[in-house]
Amino acid sequence: MFSPLNSILGWLSNDLAIDLGTANTLVYMKGKGIVLREPSVVAIRKDARANRVLAVGKEAKMMVGRTPGNIVATRPIKDGVIADFEVTEAMLRYFIKKVHNQVEKRAVKESAESAGAREIYLIEEPMAAAIGAGLPITEPRANMIVDIGGGTTEVAVISLAGIVYSKSVRVAGDKMDEAILQYIKRKHNLAIGERTAEVIKTTIGDVMPEEPYENMDIKGRDLVSGVPKTLTINSAEIRSAISEQVDAIIDAVKMALELTPPELSADIVDQGIVLTGGGALLRNLDKRLNKETGLPIIIAEDPLSSVVLGSGAALDNIDILKEVKINW
Protein backbone atom coordinates (compact mmCIF):
# COMPACT_ATOMS: atom_id res chain seq x y z
CA MET A 1 0.00 0.00 0.00
CA PHE A 2 1.16 3.57 -0.59
CA SER A 3 0.84 6.80 1.34
CA PRO A 4 -0.36 9.72 -0.77
CA LEU A 5 1.22 13.13 -0.17
CA ASN A 6 -1.07 15.90 -1.32
CA SER A 7 0.23 19.40 -2.01
CA ILE A 8 -3.20 20.98 -2.06
CA LEU A 9 -3.29 24.54 -3.35
CA GLY A 10 -6.89 23.98 -4.29
CA TRP A 11 -8.00 23.34 -0.75
CA LEU A 12 -6.04 25.34 1.73
CA SER A 13 -2.66 26.32 0.33
CA ASN A 14 -1.27 23.93 2.94
CA ASP A 15 0.52 20.62 2.50
CA LEU A 16 -1.19 17.50 3.77
CA ALA A 17 0.22 14.02 4.24
CA ILE A 18 -2.32 11.22 4.48
CA ASP A 19 -1.74 7.72 5.81
CA LEU A 20 -4.70 5.86 4.34
CA GLY A 21 -4.67 2.68 6.42
CA THR A 22 -6.91 -0.35 6.62
CA ALA A 23 -7.69 0.32 10.27
CA ASN A 24 -7.07 4.05 10.67
CA THR A 25 -6.51 7.16 8.56
CA LEU A 26 -4.14 9.85 9.81
CA VAL A 27 -3.69 13.33 8.37
CA TYR A 28 -0.58 15.45 8.88
CA MET A 29 -0.62 19.17 8.11
CA LYS A 30 2.64 20.91 7.39
CA GLY A 31 3.52 23.20 10.27
CA LYS A 32 0.89 21.69 12.57
CA GLY A 33 1.69 17.98 12.78
CA ILE A 34 -0.98 15.29 13.04
CA VAL A 35 -4.37 16.99 12.89
CA LEU A 36 -6.63 13.96 12.45
CA ARG A 37 -6.61 10.32 13.51
CA GLU A 38 -9.83 8.42 12.74
CA PRO A 39 -10.88 4.82 12.03
CA SER A 40 -11.17 4.02 8.30
CA VAL A 41 -14.85 3.19 8.63
CA VAL A 42 -17.89 4.55 6.78
CA ALA A 43 -21.54 3.97 7.72
CA ILE A 44 -23.86 3.96 4.69
CA ARG A 45 -27.65 4.15 4.70
CA LYS A 46 -29.14 2.16 1.83
CA ASP A 47 -32.52 3.03 0.35
CA ALA A 48 -34.37 2.52 -2.92
CA ARG A 49 -33.09 5.71 -4.56
CA ALA A 50 -29.46 5.99 -3.52
CA ASN A 51 -26.93 5.13 -0.87
CA ARG A 52 -26.03 7.92 1.54
CA VAL A 53 -23.03 8.32 3.82
CA LEU A 54 -24.39 8.49 7.34
CA ALA A 55 -21.21 8.67 9.43
CA VAL A 56 -17.45 8.46 8.99
CA GLY A 57 -14.57 7.64 11.31
CA LYS A 58 -15.08 7.26 15.05
CA GLU A 59 -18.82 7.72 14.83
CA ALA A 60 -19.10 5.07 12.12
CA LYS A 61 -16.90 2.61 14.01
CA MET A 62 -19.24 2.84 16.98
CA MET A 63 -21.96 1.50 14.65
CA VAL A 64 -20.06 -1.65 13.62
CA GLY A 65 -22.15 -4.66 14.60
CA ARG A 66 -24.95 -2.42 15.91
CA THR A 67 -26.72 -1.23 12.75
CA PRO A 68 -30.21 -2.06 11.46
CA GLY A 69 -30.61 -3.76 8.10
CA ASN A 70 -30.67 -0.59 6.02
CA ILE A 71 -27.41 0.78 7.47
CA VAL A 72 -24.05 -0.84 6.72
CA ALA A 73 -20.85 0.09 8.54
CA THR A 74 -18.03 -0.80 6.16
CA ARG A 75 -14.26 -0.48 5.87
CA PRO A 76 -13.50 0.51 2.26
CA ILE A 77 -9.87 -0.57 2.50
CA LYS A 78 -9.35 -4.31 2.78
CA ASP A 79 -6.00 -6.01 3.38
CA GLY A 80 -4.13 -2.81 2.60
CA VAL A 81 -5.77 -2.07 -0.76
CA ILE A 82 -8.76 0.06 -1.73
CA ALA A 83 -11.75 -2.26 -2.12
CA ASP A 84 -14.37 0.43 -2.70
CA PHE A 85 -13.14 3.56 -4.47
CA GLU A 86 -16.40 5.47 -4.16
CA VAL A 87 -16.67 4.97 -0.40
CA THR A 88 -12.96 5.66 0.05
CA GLU A 89 -13.37 8.96 -1.81
CA ALA A 90 -16.32 9.91 0.40
CA MET A 91 -14.28 9.08 3.48
CA LEU A 92 -11.32 11.16 2.34
CA ARG A 93 -13.55 14.10 1.46
CA TYR A 94 -15.02 13.96 4.96
CA PHE A 95 -11.63 13.81 6.66
CA ILE A 96 -10.13 16.61 4.55
CA LYS A 97 -13.20 18.77 5.15
CA LYS A 98 -12.94 18.08 8.86
CA VAL A 99 -9.29 19.16 8.85
CA HIS A 100 -10.14 22.35 7.00
CA ASN A 101 -12.97 23.18 9.37
CA GLN A 102 -10.26 23.86 11.91
CA VAL A 103 -9.17 27.00 10.05
CA GLU A 104 -10.84 30.21 9.00
CA LYS A 105 -13.86 29.55 6.76
CA ARG A 106 -12.95 32.40 4.45
CA ALA A 107 -9.56 30.85 3.71
CA VAL A 108 -11.23 27.56 2.87
CA LYS A 109 -13.71 29.26 0.56
CA GLU A 110 -11.04 31.25 -1.28
CA SER A 111 -8.71 28.29 -1.67
CA ALA A 112 -11.52 25.98 -2.75
CA GLU A 113 -12.44 28.46 -5.49
CA SER A 114 -8.94 28.15 -6.88
CA ALA A 115 -9.11 24.36 -6.88
CA GLY A 116 -7.16 22.59 -9.57
CA ALA A 117 -3.50 23.24 -8.83
CA ARG A 118 -2.86 19.93 -7.13
CA GLU A 119 0.26 17.81 -7.01
CA ILE A 120 0.37 14.29 -5.60
CA TYR A 121 3.42 12.35 -4.54
CA LEU A 122 3.58 8.70 -3.52
CA ILE A 123 6.09 7.07 -1.22
CA GLU A 124 6.08 3.44 -0.28
CA GLU A 125 4.61 2.80 3.14
CA PRO A 126 7.66 1.14 4.73
CA MET A 127 9.80 4.06 3.55
CA ALA A 128 7.40 6.52 5.17
CA ALA A 129 7.34 4.41 8.34
CA ALA A 130 11.15 4.32 8.45
CA ILE A 131 11.38 8.10 8.10
CA GLY A 132 8.72 8.55 10.77
CA ALA A 133 10.58 6.20 13.12
CA GLY A 134 13.68 8.36 12.76
CA LEU A 135 15.81 5.88 10.83
CA PRO A 136 18.76 7.29 8.83
CA ILE A 137 17.34 6.18 5.50
CA THR A 138 19.77 8.20 3.34
CA GLU A 139 22.92 6.68 4.83
CA PRO A 140 24.81 3.79 3.16
CA ARG A 141 23.75 1.24 5.74
CA ALA A 142 20.81 -1.09 6.12
CA ASN A 143 17.72 -0.23 8.14
CA MET A 144 15.09 -2.93 8.61
CA ILE A 145 11.51 -1.89 9.25
CA VAL A 146 8.46 -4.05 10.03
CA ASP A 147 5.21 -2.08 9.76
CA ILE A 148 2.26 -4.06 11.14
CA GLY A 149 -0.96 -2.27 10.23
CA GLY A 150 -4.59 -3.30 10.11
CA GLY A 151 -4.62 -5.08 6.75
CA THR A 152 -0.99 -5.77 5.89
CA THR A 153 2.44 -6.25 7.38
CA GLU A 154 5.19 -4.57 5.39
CA VAL A 155 8.76 -5.82 5.85
CA ALA A 156 11.51 -3.80 4.20
CA VAL A 157 15.24 -3.25 4.19
CA ILE A 158 16.23 0.30 3.29
CA SER A 159 19.61 1.78 2.36
CA LEU A 160 20.65 4.98 0.59
CA ALA A 161 17.02 6.18 0.39
CA GLY A 162 16.07 3.09 -1.58
CA ILE A 163 14.29 -0.14 -0.76
CA VAL A 164 16.68 -3.06 -1.10
CA TYR A 165 14.06 -5.66 -0.13
CA SER A 166 10.32 -5.35 0.41
CA LYS A 167 7.63 -7.88 1.18
CA SER A 168 3.97 -7.28 1.95
CA VAL A 169 1.89 -10.00 3.61
CA ARG A 170 -1.84 -9.73 4.14
CA VAL A 171 -1.63 -10.72 7.77
CA ALA A 172 -1.93 -8.02 10.41
CA GLY A 173 -4.30 -6.65 13.04
CA ASP A 174 -7.56 -7.42 11.21
CA LYS A 175 -6.66 -11.08 10.72
CA MET A 176 -5.83 -11.34 14.42
CA ASP A 177 -9.22 -9.86 15.34
CA GLU A 178 -10.94 -12.37 13.07
CA ALA A 179 -8.90 -15.22 14.56
CA ILE A 180 -9.93 -14.21 18.09
CA LEU A 181 -13.57 -13.98 17.02
CA GLN A 182 -13.47 -17.44 15.44
CA TYR A 183 -11.58 -18.98 18.37
CA ILE A 184 -14.16 -17.81 20.89
CA LYS A 185 -16.97 -18.97 18.63
CA ARG A 186 -15.39 -22.40 18.16
CA LYS A 187 -14.07 -22.96 21.69
CA HIS A 188 -16.78 -21.32 23.79
CA ASN A 189 -19.84 -21.25 21.50
CA LEU A 190 -19.99 -17.50 21.99
CA ALA A 191 -20.62 -15.01 19.19
CA ILE A 192 -18.82 -11.68 19.57
CA GLY A 193 -18.37 -8.70 17.22
CA GLU A 194 -15.29 -7.27 15.53
CA ARG A 195 -15.00 -4.42 18.03
CA THR A 196 -15.05 -6.81 20.97
CA ALA A 197 -12.37 -8.95 19.32
CA GLU A 198 -10.17 -5.88 18.85
CA VAL A 199 -10.65 -4.84 22.48
CA ILE A 200 -9.66 -8.34 23.60
CA LYS A 201 -6.50 -8.16 21.47
CA THR A 202 -5.43 -4.77 22.78
CA THR A 203 -6.34 -5.57 26.40
CA ILE A 204 -4.97 -9.08 27.04
CA GLY A 205 -3.32 -9.99 23.74
CA ASP A 206 0.13 -11.36 24.55
CA VAL A 207 2.53 -13.29 22.33
CA MET A 208 4.41 -14.80 25.30
CA PRO A 209 2.09 -14.70 28.34
CA GLU A 210 3.29 -15.98 31.69
CA GLU A 211 1.37 -17.34 34.64
CA PRO A 212 -0.66 -16.05 36.36
CA TYR A 213 -2.42 -15.30 33.07
CA GLU A 214 -4.32 -12.05 32.68
CA ASN A 215 -8.10 -12.51 32.58
CA MET A 216 -10.88 -10.53 30.91
CA ASP A 217 -14.67 -10.76 31.05
CA ILE A 218 -16.34 -10.55 27.64
CA LYS A 219 -19.98 -10.39 26.61
CA GLY A 220 -21.57 -12.02 23.60
CA ARG A 221 -24.44 -14.24 22.45
CA ASP A 222 -24.51 -17.88 23.44
CA LEU A 223 -24.79 -19.88 20.21
CA VAL A 224 -26.61 -22.73 21.96
CA SER A 225 -29.25 -20.87 23.98
CA GLY A 226 -29.31 -17.71 21.85
CA VAL A 227 -29.24 -15.43 24.90
CA PRO A 228 -26.55 -12.94 26.02
CA LYS A 229 -23.75 -14.42 28.11
CA THR A 230 -20.63 -13.28 29.98
CA LEU A 231 -17.45 -15.34 29.67
CA THR A 232 -13.99 -15.09 31.26
CA ILE A 233 -11.02 -15.69 28.96
CA ASN A 234 -7.28 -15.39 29.57
CA SER A 235 -4.17 -14.25 27.71
CA ALA A 236 -3.00 -17.84 27.10
CA GLU A 237 -6.13 -18.46 25.05
CA ILE A 238 -5.52 -15.32 22.99
CA ARG A 239 -1.93 -16.37 22.36
CA SER A 240 -3.30 -19.62 20.96
CA ALA A 241 -5.95 -17.81 18.91
CA ILE A 242 -3.48 -15.50 17.13
CA SER A 243 -0.52 -17.88 16.91
CA GLU A 244 -0.98 -18.47 13.16
CA GLN A 245 -0.92 -14.75 12.38
CA VAL A 246 2.08 -14.09 14.64
CA ASP A 247 3.98 -16.99 13.06
CA ALA A 248 3.25 -15.60 9.58
CA ILE A 249 4.71 -12.22 10.54
CA ILE A 250 7.80 -13.87 12.04
CA ASP A 251 8.25 -15.98 8.90
CA ALA A 252 8.09 -12.83 6.75
CA VAL A 253 10.82 -11.25 8.88
CA LYS A 254 13.00 -14.35 8.67
CA MET A 255 12.60 -14.48 4.89
CA ALA A 256 13.65 -10.84 4.64
CA LEU A 257 16.76 -11.57 6.68
CA GLU A 258 17.61 -14.56 4.47
CA LEU A 259 17.24 -12.52 1.27
CA THR A 260 19.10 -9.41 2.45
CA PRO A 261 22.51 -9.00 0.73
CA PRO A 262 25.35 -10.13 3.03
CA GLU A 263 26.95 -6.67 2.97
CA LEU A 264 23.83 -5.24 4.59
CA SER A 265 23.15 -8.07 7.04
CA ALA A 266 25.93 -6.88 9.33
CA ASP A 267 24.21 -3.50 9.61
CA ILE A 268 20.96 -5.13 10.72
CA VAL A 269 22.87 -7.11 13.36
CA ASP A 270 24.17 -3.81 14.72
CA GLN A 271 21.09 -1.65 14.20
CA GLY A 272 18.37 -4.21 14.87
CA ILE A 273 14.81 -4.30 13.54
CA VAL A 274 12.35 -1.45 14.07
CA LEU A 275 8.66 -2.22 14.59
CA THR A 276 5.95 0.29 13.63
CA GLY A 277 2.18 0.22 13.15
CA GLY A 278 -0.48 -0.77 15.65
CA GLY A 279 0.75 -4.38 15.68
CA ALA A 280 4.02 -3.21 17.21
CA LEU A 281 2.06 -2.65 20.41
CA LEU A 282 1.08 -6.32 20.70
CA ARG A 283 2.52 -7.35 24.02
CA ASN A 284 5.84 -9.23 23.86
CA LEU A 285 5.94 -9.40 20.08
CA ASP A 286 9.33 -7.70 20.28
CA LYS A 287 10.58 -10.37 22.71
CA ARG A 288 9.33 -13.17 20.47
CA LEU A 289 11.04 -11.65 17.42
CA ASN A 290 14.24 -11.25 19.42
CA LYS A 291 14.05 -14.91 20.47
CA GLU A 292 13.45 -16.05 16.88
CA THR A 293 16.11 -13.88 15.20
CA GLY A 294 18.64 -13.10 17.90
CA LEU A 295 18.56 -9.45 16.80
CA PRO A 296 17.75 -6.29 18.76
CA ILE A 297 14.09 -5.32 18.30
CA ILE A 298 13.13 -1.67 18.73
CA ILE A 299 9.55 -0.40 18.94
CA ALA A 300 9.17 3.03 17.32
CA GLU A 301 8.45 5.88 19.72
CA ASP A 302 5.00 6.47 18.23
CA PRO A 303 4.30 3.32 16.17
CA LEU A 304 0.71 4.24 15.30
CA SER A 305 1.83 7.51 13.73
CA SER A 306 5.11 6.51 12.07
CA VAL A 307 3.80 6.43 8.49
CA VAL A 308 2.07 9.79 8.58
CA LEU A 309 4.91 11.41 10.53
CA GLY A 310 7.35 10.13 7.92
CA SER A 311 5.12 11.43 5.14
CA GLY A 312 4.98 14.79 6.89
CA ALA A 313 8.74 14.85 7.34
CA ALA A 314 9.16 14.23 3.61
CA LEU A 315 6.87 17.20 2.93
CA ASP A 316 9.09 19.32 5.13
CA ASN A 317 12.25 18.24 3.32
CA ILE A 318 11.88 18.46 -0.45
CA ASP A 319 15.30 16.85 -1.02
CA ILE A 320 14.25 13.70 0.83
CA LEU A 321 10.88 13.73 -0.92
CA LYS A 322 12.57 13.80 -4.33
CA GLU A 323 14.76 10.86 -3.35
CA VAL A 324 12.03 8.61 -1.98
CA LYS A 325 9.03 9.44 -4.15
CA ILE A 326 7.68 6.87 -6.59
CA ASN A 327 7.68 7.81 -10.25
CA TRP A 328 4.18 7.13 -11.58
What does this structure look like?
- This protein is of the alpha+beta class and 328 residues long.
- The strands form 5 sheets. A 5-stranded antiparallel sheet has the order 4-3-2-1-10, sandwiched between helices. The protein has a 5-stranded mixed sheet with strand order 13-12-11-17-18, sandwiched between helices. Strands 6-5-7 form a 3-stranded antiparallel sheet.
- α4 (125-132) crosses α11 (306-316).
- Among the domains are: 125-171 and 248-313, Nucleotidyltransferase, domain 5 (2-Layer Sandwich); 173-243, Alpha-Beta Complex (Actin, Chain A, domain 4).
- Residues 1-13 and 104-117 have low confidence and may be disordered.
- β2 (14-20) and β3 (24-29) form a beta hairpin.
- The protein has helices spanning 58-61, 85-100, 105-113, 125-132, 173-188, 194-204, 235-241, 243-259, 262-271, 285-293, 306-316, 318-324, and strands at 2-8, 14-20, 24-29, 33-39, 42-46, 51-56, 71-74, 77-78, 81-82, 118-124, 143-148, 153-159, 162-169, 190-191, 215-222, 228-234, 273-276, 297-299.
- The protein is flat.
- It is built from 12 helices and 18 strands.
